[in-house]
Amino acid sequence: MIALVLSLFAFFFQSGWTGVNERTFIAIKPDGVQRKLVGEIIRRFEKKGFKLVGLKLVKASEDLLKQHYWDLRSRPFFSGLVTYMSSGPVVAMVWEGLEVVKTARRMLGETNPADSLPGTIRGDFCVEVGRNVIHGSDSVESAQREISLWFHQNELLSWEDNSRRWIYE
């Protein structure tokens, strides 16, 4: 029920979710934080030209994680996933840019690191599915829902990126 309410909220209060204003949710999982990959992952998104509009280090509650992974609740690994994700700090981020959802998913690589190409985050840093370092929204709609779960509106910044004219025509 809460997931439905948040989805409706995200739908009705979306602002500028297209073009260069598209936003996605990215989370560096506890294994990525423990392995000190945060800076490298942020660097990759910055070098790509995306704009960071939200960032926080959190210890996610089981309730938040159950809402976040609601669509996986019937899968046998759900309980273990929630336990694992609540076991340590998570870096929650919102990135903005042209087709950022699709591009970020490509930058992450496949869910199974064995299927991920070198040069992707999972292809470069991961071995097992259960420790695949990072989460990224899989659609604009998922991004809206996930951002509204992890961030309050006042935690997202709108700011002028002076490099924008060097990235977009």
From TrEMBL:
Q: Does the keyword Aminoacyl-tRNA synthetase apply?
A: no
A GO biological process of this protein is: UTP biosynthetic process
Q: Tell me which GO cellular component terms the UniProt record holds.
A: cytoplasm; lamellipodium; nucleus; ruffle
Could you say which residues form the signal peptide?
Answer: 1-18
Catalysed reaction(s) here are:
a ribonucleoside 5'-diphosphate + ATP = a ribonucleoside 5'-triphosphate + ADP; a 2'-deoxyribonucleoside 5'-diphosphate + ATP = a 2'-deoxyribonucleoside 5'-triphosphate + ADP
* Enzyme type, top EC level: transferase
Active-site residues are H135 (pros-phosphohistidine intermediate)
Q: Which cofactor does it need?
A: Mg(2+)
Q: Name one GO molecular function term.
A: nucleoside diphosphate kinase activity
Nucleoside diphosphate kinase-like domain span: 21-158
Where is the protein found, in the record's own terms? Cell projection, Lamellipodium; Cell projection, Ruffle; Cytoplasm; Nucleus
Where does the UniProt entry say this protein principally localizes? other
What EC number(s) would the UniProt record show?
2.7.4.6
The UniProt annotation places ATP binding at K29, F77, R105, T111, R122, N132
So what does this one do? Major role in the synthesis of nucleoside triphosphates other than ATP.
Put simply, this protein is called Nucleoside diphosphate kinase
Organismal lineage: Eukaryota, Metazoa, Chordata, Craniata, Vertebrata
